[in-house]
Design a protein that fits this description.
Chain B: This is SpoVR family protein. Chain B: Pfam families: SpoVR (PF04293), SpoVR_C (PF24755). Chain B: InterPro entries: Spore_V_R, SpoVR-like_C, SpoVR_N, Ycgb-like. Chain A: It comes from Thalassotalea marina. The complex is a heterodimer. Chain A is α/β, with parallel strands linked by helices. Chain A has 3 domains: about 55 residues, no CATH class; about 80 residues; about 180 residues, Rossmann fold (3-Layer(aba) Sandwich), CATH 3.40.50.410. Chain A contains 13 helices and 13 strands. In chain A, helix 11 links the parallel strand 12 and strand 13. In chain A, helix 5 runs antiparallel to helix 6 and helix 9 packs parallel to helix 10. The longest helix of chain A has about 35 residues. Chain A starts with a strand and ends with a helix. Among the domains of chain B are: about 150 residues, no CATH class; about 120 residues, no CATH class; about 60 residues. In chain B, about 55% of the residues lie in helices and about 10% in strands. Chain B contains 21 helices and 9 strands. Chain B has a 4-stranded mixed sheet. A 3-stranded mixed sheet of chain B has the order 1-3-2. In chain B, helix 10 runs antiparallel to helix 11, helix 14 runs antiparallel to helix 16 and helix 17 packs antiparallel against helix 19. Chain B starts with 14 loop residues before the first helix and ends in an 11-residue tail after the last strand. The chains are: A alpha/beta, B alpha/beta. Chains A and B meet through strand 1, helix 1, strand 3, strand 4 and helix 3 of A and helix 1, strand 1, helix 2, helix 3 and helix 7 of B. Strand 1 of chain A pairs parallel with strand 1 of chain B.
Chain lengths: ~425, ~500
C-alpha cells in the first residue's frame, strides 16, 4: 500500500528562485543595510558574507485581523490557584499570549528586525552594482602562473591513449575507398563480360576461364588492402595555452602625520577596504602595498599602516616618490595593473604641492590605471587639493573626492567608480 | 498469533527496514479499519524539508517572494537552533505524499509513518470537511497548472505585474473561502480547457455588468436594487467575477489563490482533531506492535520519549506556554473517548450516555468523520479531561481594569469551559467578519465592505494596507465601513484616501 521514493538526490534548492525574488523585491532595503555594514567591517573579513537587516514592518504582508481590545474569553490549562469569580490584575501585554491559533502571533507588535545572511557574492554584487573598474586592461600575460591544456585538433602522431577512434576509422574508410576504386571498376567490367559470355549460346570455355581467373585475382587484390593502417591513425592533439590572468597591485598611500587622528585613519581604512573588495571582483591576484608618510615615506605592513602613531610634518611627495620607486623595482607596468589610492587630511608643506603635481602628471599617472585621491577633512582645502585639482582637470584616470564623515565614504566611492558609459563604448 | 522475529531497532534505517515496518504498520492499521489513500513516502534531507516548509505545504508552489521570505526565516531559525524541523510533512493528496527526513532514526521513521501515512492520511480521506471541500486526486495537478500558468503570465506580462497581483490576492486570501457552498471537482486537463473559455466568458459577463451604453437608461428605474443582492463573504470570488477592469489573466490568478485558500481551509478547522487523530493512531499502532512482540524495548523507549514531548501541555505559567497544544488536546480527547467507551464512570454515563460502554473503534471513527474542532470539543470534551488539564476560563473585557476568572474545572464550570473552548476554535470568531455589501454599479463604481465586530473587538490597523491591495484589484474607490453604536455605518478605512472634502456630487 505504500511507495517509497528516495528524493534525497533531487535538487534541494527548490526555493532559490523564491529567495532571489525576495532579494529582488527588497533590494533597496538590503542595499542600504549593506552600505551601512561596510562601515563596520574589519579589513580582514572581506571573505565573508553579510548579515542583512530589514525592518520587519517594511516586509509585512498585511491581512485583515482582529485588533486589540474588546471582550475576550480564553481557556488556559494548569489552574493552580484560581477559583471562579476571582478578579486579577491584567498582566502586561505579551506578544502571542494566549493565542492558540497562530494568527495572533503573526500580528504581535514590536518584533525584531528581519535579519538574514547573504553570501559573499550576493554581498559584493549589491555593493558594487553599477560600478566598474576604470581603464581595465589585460596586461602582459602572467608567464608564471597558469597554463591550461586545451584540445587543438588532431595530429598523425601520438601515444595510443590519445587515439581518436572515430577520426581514425573515417581515415581508414577513405583510404580503402581510394585505394580500391580502380580495381573495383575493373572487376565490375570483367563480371559484366563474364555474364555476357555465359548468356551467349556458344561455348567460350577458355575465355570464361581466363575471366574467372582475373576476377579471382582482382578480388584478392581488393581484399589485400589493409583494414587499418598506421597512415589512418589520428591522435587528439593538445596544446598548452597561457591563461590570460592579469595581476593588479594596489598602492595605499596615507598621510600619518600628527594631524591625522585615528578616526580619520579609520575612514581611510574603509575606503581601502572598499577598493580592495572591488578589485577582488576583477583580479585573481592582488598585491597591496602600504605606504605611509609624514616627512618621509615608508613601506609598511597593514597593521603598522593603520595603527601606528607618528608625528611630524607632511611632505606628500615623499610617498609618491616611494611609490614610483617600488613600481620601478617590483611592478613592471607592462605586467601589472597598477592602482593607487591616496588618503590625506590635506595638510602638506606648501612648497611641496607643486612638486607633487609634477610627479603625478609626469611620472606616476602614465604608469597607473587609475589613481584616486580622497581628502578627509572638515576644514578648507589647501595647496595639495588645488594642485591635484589641476591634475584631475587634465587627466581622465585621476579622480579626487572630499570626505567629511564616515557616511560619505560609500557615496564617494560610488562616485569615483560609477559606470562611465563613454568608456564602456 | 505466531511469534515472529523482532524488527531491527536501528538506530539507522534502510529502505528494506522501512518496508518491513511499513508493512507491519499497514497490517495493524487495517486491523483498526483505517481507510487511507495510497501512500507515497518520500525520503528527503533537512534542506529539502526547509524547502517544503517554505512552500507552506504545497508540494509544487508557484514562485513568489513571500515563499523566499519564509525560506530565509526557516533557515535562520533552524541554523540558530531556535527550532527543530518537523519530523514529517504530509500532503492531502491522492496518493497521499508524506516526507520523511533522512536524519530520523528508524524509530522516528516508524512513528512518522504511523502518524502521517495512516493517521493523517485516514483523516484526510474520512473527515467530512475534507471530503466535501477538497479533492485529493486533483490537487497536485491543479498546483502544477497554477505554477505553469503563473510562470506563463510572468513571461507575458512581467514579474512585477504578476507579483503585485499575487500580493493583493494574498492579502485577501483568508477571505477567498466559500464557507457554505461546496466547490466542484475538476481535473487539470479540464481545468486547462475551461480556463480559456472561462476567461472569455467572464470578461463578457463583467462587460455586461458595467456597460454604460443606452441600455442602462431603462435600468435606472430599478436603481434602488442593491448589488450584490446578498452580502458576499468570499471577497476574492466577488472580485474574480465582478471587478470591472481586471484583465482575464488577473482574474485567473485571483481564482488560483482562492482555490488554494479553499484547499487549506479544512486544515485550519480541524487542527486539534487532525493532530489528535494522528497521535492517537501512532500511539495505538506502535503499542499494538509492541504487544505483538514485534518491536524492541529500545524502540519503545525512544518512541515514548518523542511521543511524550509532542503531546506535552505546558501550564499557563510555564515559560514554554504558548496556548493550548492542539496535539495534546486532540490526543487526550481521543484517548478519553476510548476510555469512556471501555470503562465509563458514573459521570461519563451521565455526560455521554450515547457513547459510554459502546464499541470504542466505532466511536472514534464516528468522531473523526463527522466533526470539526469546534463541534468535536463541544461534543466530546469530558469533565475528567477538563480536570486533568485543570482548565480555567479567563474573561477579559478591556473596559474593566481587571480580568476575571469566570469558570474553573469544577461542576459549576464544566459547561461554560467547554463552550468557551469550543468557541476558541470557531474560525468565524477568530477571523474578522468582513463582507462585500455594495458595489455601486450605476454610479462611481465604488466598492463598500462592512466589518461586523465580534465581542467588540476592533479591526487591526493593517486594514488600511489591505484596502490598498483591494483597491489594486478593484481599481475604483474602496470603502470599509462599520456600524457605530446607533447602527449607522461609518467609514473606518478607505482607499484612495480622499483629499480634503471635495464635493461628492457624483
Amino acid at each position: 500500500m505504500a511507495n517509497f521514493i528516495d528524493r534525497r538526490l533531487n535538487s534541494k534548492n527548490k526555493s532559490t528562485v523564491n529567495r532571489q525574488r525576495f532579494i529582488r523585491r527588497y533590494k533597496s532595503q538590503i542595499k542600504k543595510s549593506v552600505e551601512e555594514a561596510i562601515n563596520q567591517r574589519g579589513v580582514t573579513d572581506v571573505e565573508s558574507g553579510e548579515n542583512v537587516t530589514i525592518p520587519k514592518k517594511d516586509m509585512s504582508e498585511p491581512i485583515f485581523h482582529q485588533g486589540k481590545g474588546g471582550v475576550r474569553d480564553r481557556i488556559h490549562p494548569g489552574n493552580d490557584q484560581y477559583s471562579a469569580g476571582d478578579k486579577i490584575k491584567r498582566p502586561p501585554q505579551q506578544g502571542g499570549q494566549g493565542s492558540g491559533q497562530g494568527e495572533a502571533s503573526d500580528s504581535g507588535e514590536g518584533q525584531d528586525d528581519f535579519v538574514f545572511s547573504i553570501s559573499k557574492d550576493e554581498y559584493l554584487n549589491l555593493l558594487f552594482e553599477d560600478l566598474e573598474l576604470p581603464n581595465l586592461e589585460k596586461n602582459q600575460l602572467d608567464k608564471l602562473v597558469d597554463y591550461k591544456t586545451v584540445r587543438s585538433g588532431y595530429c598523425t602522431q601520438g601515444v595510443p591513449a590519445n587515439i581518436d577512434i572515430v577520426k581514425s576509422l573515417q581515415g581508414s574508410i577513405a583510404r580503402r575507398i581510394a585505394m580500391t576504386s580502380s580495381k573495383r571498376k575493373e572487376l565490375k567490367a570483367l563480371e559484366q563480360q563474364l555474364e555476357a559470355l555465359e548468356k551467349d549460346p556458344h561455348d567460350h570455355v577458355a575465355q570464361e576461364k581466363k575471366l574467372q581467373q582475373d576476377i579471382v585475382d582482382l578480388k584478392s587484390k581488393i581484399a589485400a588492402v589493409p583494414f587499418i593502417d598506421t597512415f589512418d591513425l589520428r591522435f587528439r592533439n593538445y596544446a598548452k595555452q597561457p591563461v590570460p590572468t592579469s595581476k593588479a597591485v594596489m598602492f595605499c598611500l596615507m598621510d600619518v602625520s600628527g594631524s591625522m587622528d585615528q578616526a580619520t585613519k579609520d575612514m581611510a581604512k574603509r575606503f581601502y577596504i572598499l577598493l580592495y573588495l572591488f578589485l577582488t571582483r576583477t583580479y585573481k591576484t592582488i598585491d597591496v602595498v602600504y605606504i605611509r608618510h609624514h616627512t618621509q615615506a615608508k613601506e609598511v605592513d597593514e597593521q603598522e599602516f593603520f595603527y601606528s602613531q607618528e608625528t611630524g610634518g607632511t611632505i606628500a611627495s615623499s610617498a609618491l616618490e616611494l611609490m614610483i620607486k617600488v613600481i620601478d623595482e617590483r611592478y613592471n607596468p607592462r605586467e601589472w595593473n597598477i592602482y593607487g589610492a591616496q588618503a590625506s587630511d590635506g595638510d602638506n608643506w606648501a612648497d611641496d604641492s607643486p612638486y607633487c603635481y609634477k610627479l603625478m602628471t609626469q611620472d606616476l599617472l602614465p604608469l597607473c590605471r587609475y589613481f584616486a585621491y580622497i581628502e578627509i577633512t572638515q576644514r578648507a582645502h589647501q595647496t595639495l587639493w588645488q594642485q591635484y585639482q589641476k591634475v584631475a582637470d587634465t587627466t581622465p584616470h585621476f579622480a579626487m573626492q572630499h570626505i567629511k564623515s564616515v557616511e560619505d565614504i560609500y557615496p564617494v566611492f560610488r562616485e569615483l567608480f560609477k559606470k562611465n558609459t563613454k568608456q564602456v563604448a | 498469533m505466531p511469534r515472529r522475529k523482532k524488527l531491527a531497532d536501528g538506530p539507522d534505517w534502510t529502505f528494506e527496514l522501512l518496508e518491513q515496518y511499513q508493512a507491519e504498520i499497514a497490517r495493524v492499521a487495517e486491523h483498526y479499519r483505517l481507510d487511507t489513500y495510497k501512500n507515497q513516502i518520500e525520503v528527503i534531507t533537512a534542506e529539502q524539508m526547509m524547502d517544503a516548509y517554505a512552500s507552506v505545504g504545497m508540494p509544487i508552489g508557484y514562485n513568489h517572494w513571500t515563499f523566499g521570505k519564509k525560506f530565509i526565516q526557516t533557515e535562520q531559525t533552524y541554523k540558530r537552533g531556535q527550532m527543530g524541523l518537523a519530523y514529517e510533512i504530509v500532503i492531502n493528496s491522492d496518493p497521499c505524499i508524506s516526507y520523511l527526513m533522512e536524519e530520523n532514526s528508524i524509530t522516528m521513521q516508524a512513528l512518522v509513518m504511523a502518524h502521517a501515512c495512516y493517521g493523517h492520511n485516514s483523516f484526510f480521506k474520512g473527515n467530512y470537511l475534507f471530503q466535501s471541500w477538497t479533492d485529493a486526486s486533483s490537487i497536485i495537478d491543479y498546483l502544477l497548472f497554477a505554477k505553469n500558468y503563473i510562470a506563463e503570465c510572468e513571461n507575458k506580462y512581467g514579474v512585477d505585474e504578476v507579483e503585485a497581483c499575487l500580493d493583493a490576492c494574498h492579502a485577501l486570501m483568508a477571505h477567498g473561502v466559500d464557507r457554505y457552498k461546496r466547490p466542484q471537482k475538476v481535473s487539470m486537463t479540464e481545468e486547462k480547457k475551461r480556463q480559456k473559455l472561462r476567461a472569455e466568458y467572464m470578461q463578457s459577463q463583467v462587460n455586461m455588468l458595467w456597460r454604460t451604453l443606452p441600455e442602462a437608461v431603462k435600468k435606472t428605474k430599478t436603481e434602488t436594487l442593491n448589488f450584490p443582492s446578498e452580502p458576499q463573504e468570499n471577497i476574492l470570488y466577488f472580485i474574480e467575477k465582478n471587478a470591472p477592469l481586471l484583465k482575464p489573466w488577473q482574474r485567473e490568478i485571483v481564482r488560483i489563490v482562492r482555490k488554494i485558500s479553499q484547499y487549506f481551509y479544512p486544515q485550519k478547522q480541524t487542527q486539534v482533531m487532525n493532530e489528535g487523530w494522528a497521535c492517537f493512531w501512532h500511539y495505538t499502532i506502535l503499542n499494538h506492535l509492541y504487544d505483538e512482540g514485534l518491536v524492541s524495548d529500545n524502540f519503545m523507549m525512544e518512541f515514548l520519549h518523542s511521543h511524550t514531548n509532542v503531546v506535552a501541555q505546558p501550564e499557563y505559567n510555564s515559560p514554554y506556554y504558548s496556548g493550548i497544544n492542539p496535539y495534546a488536546l486532540g490526543f487526550n480527547m481521543f484517548m478519553d473517548i476510548k476510555r469512556i467507551c471501555q470503562e465509563p464512570t458514573e459521570e461519563d454515563k451521565k455526560w455521554f450516555p450515547e457513547i459510554a460502554g459502546k464499541d470504542w473503534l466505532d466511536t472514534v471513527h464516528f468522531a473523526m468523520e463527522n466533526f470539526k474542532d469546534e463541534s468535536f470539543i463541544s461534543q466530546f470534551l469530558s469533565p475528567k479531561l477538563m480536570r486533568d488539564f485543570k482548565l480555567f476560563h479567563i474573561h477579559d473585557d478591556d473596559k474593566e481594569n481587571f480580568i476575571e476568572i469566570s469558570a474553573i474545572h469544577n461542576e459549576a464550570g464544566y459547561h461554560s469551559i467547554r463552550a468557551a473552548l469550543s468557541n476558541q476554535y470557531n474560525l468565524s470568531n477568530l477571523e474578522p467578519n468582513i463582507q462585500v455589501i455594495n458595489a455601486d454599479i450605476q454610479g462611481d463604481r465604488s466598492l463598500t465592505l462592512k466589518y461586523t465586530r465580534h465581542n467588540e473587538i476592533p479591526l487591526a490597523d493593517s486594514k488600511h494596507e489591505v484596502l490598498k491591495h483591494l483597491y489594486y484589484l478593484w481599481q475604483f474607490d474602496v470603502k470599509l465601513v462599520e456600524d457605530n453604536d446607533e447602527g449607522k455605518p461609518v467609514i473606518i478605512a478607505q482607499c484612495p484616501i480622499p483629499e480634503v472634502n471635495t464635493e461628492k456630487a457624483s
